[in-house]
From TrEMBL:
Pathway: Energy metabolism; oxidative phosphorylation. Belongs to the cytochrome c oxidase VIIc family. Component of the cytochrome c oxidase (complex IV, CIV), a multisubunit enzyme composed of a catalytic core of 3 subunits and several supernumerary subunits. The complex exists as a monomer or a dimer and forms supercomplexes (SCs) in the inner mitochondrial membrane with ubiquinol-cytochrome c oxidoreductase (cytochrome b-c1 complex, complex III, CIII). Keywords: Membrane, Mitochondrion, Mitochondrion inner membrane, Transit peptide, Transmembrane, Transmembrane helix. Component of the cytochrome c oxidase, the last enzyme in the mitochondrial electron transport chain which drives oxidative phosphorylation. The respiratory chain contains 3 multisubunit complexes succinate dehydrogenase (complex II, CII), ubiquinol-cytochrome c oxidoreductase (cytochrome b-c1 complex, complex III, CIII) and cytochrome c oxidase (complex IV, CIV), that cooperate to transfer electrons derived from NADH and succinate to molecular oxygen, creating an electrochemical gradient over the inner membrane that drives transmembrane transport and the ATP synthase. Coiled coil: none annotated. It holds the Pfam family COX7C. It is found in: Mitochondrion inner membrane. GO terms for biological process: mitochondrial electron transport, cytochrome c to oxygen. The lineage of its organism: Eukaryota, Fungi, Dikarya, Ascomycota, Pezizomycotina. The keyword Methyltransferase does not apply. This is Cytochrome c oxidase subunit 8, mitochondrial.
Length: 77
């Protein structure tokens, strides 16, 4: 118990000595992405056909395992 207290004290003093620094964001950088709502997803939900594409993706992804299971069940050996 005594050694864990020393270790905890050393860990906090070590973190306090570290020189953390930040730099100003560079907007010309290729690694700076836009921020805000709907910017962290890899598709655009504001298009006309998004509703149909979304449900086609969901039905395909959720229904495929069941369709494969039914096909395997009825397949002749």
């Amino acid at each position: 118990m005594f050694s864990s207290a020393i270790r905890a004290k050393m860990a906090t003093s070590f973190a306090a000595r570290r020189g953390f620094s930040t730099t100003r964001t560079q907007f010309g950088s290729p690694y700076h992405y836009a921020e805000g709502p709907r910017t962290n997803i890899p598709f655009n939900p504001m298009t006309k056909r998004f509703f149909w594409r979304y449900w086609a993706f969901m039905v395909t992804g959720f229904g495929s395992p069941f369709a494969i299971a039914v096909w395997q069940t009825y397949k002749t050996k």
